[in-house]
Amino acid sequence: MTHRIGRHEAIGPALLRLAAEDLAAARLALAGGAPSDRTIHRVRQRLKRTRSVLRVLRPALDGRAERCAEKLRAAARLLSQSRDADVAAESARQFTSTAHGDDAGFGRVVVFLDREARAHQPTSVERVTRLIADSEQQLARASKSVAGTALLGRAIDHAYRRGLAARRRAEFSLTTPDLHQWRKAVKDLWHLLRLARKRLPRRSASLMAEFERLSELLGLDHDHAVLAEKLAIAPTDDPSLMEQLGLIARRRRALEAEAFILGAALYRQKPKTFRKRMALG
After folding, report:
1. What does the pLDDT read at residue 151?
2. Which of 202, 167, 146, 126 has its CA nearest to residue 19?
């Protein structure tokens, strides 16, 4: 079965099934030894999706959801260093591919960051695997009679409200942490809508695509922020540094401007109206 709640599937057991499937797939992906960057990225995606599902189930799992989520946060932290360098390297590649004649030194940056990503390959794969397995065992003991419809509806409503408040903060402050918090709220809502798409009104499909686009814009902005931070603290005397930071800043402003326009359209509804539009069937 694909990664979504079936049209006629009970929502509570379906959420537990989806979490179990993602955890098992993440654990098996790490079983082959030294994971590639692609594998690490996919595992981290699965852990994020599971934590999103755990937030929905938290009221029904008597503390088990929070204990599992903490283990998964610890696992993600162990995988994060090489992933951050890889993200920054991919961001730098975007600047080399769009440069006309002169890449402003981003070619050197890519080489440096690729080397850093390889150097930070996680040495604690066994520890990560153990944390994931512990979470699997915890969830396997959870009751399968969770009444998930109300929990999922409440979670979608909360994610929308959180994104609405985060957009206002980000638009006011324009700081990287606030933009990142907005991105997380948008991505959480998009994931919940995607899980429930077979149980949502047909009109939700186009809305879901727009939330996905907003998540991508904010994700690119964050990737560029990571790149700028790495360049700013790198112990080098690269004469192109200020030019590089200027190019990154301009690209971020363009991404943020597009994100705020789209965000204003997506969050123009009152939460009560959005909740009615996204009522689960």
Report:
1. 92
2. 146
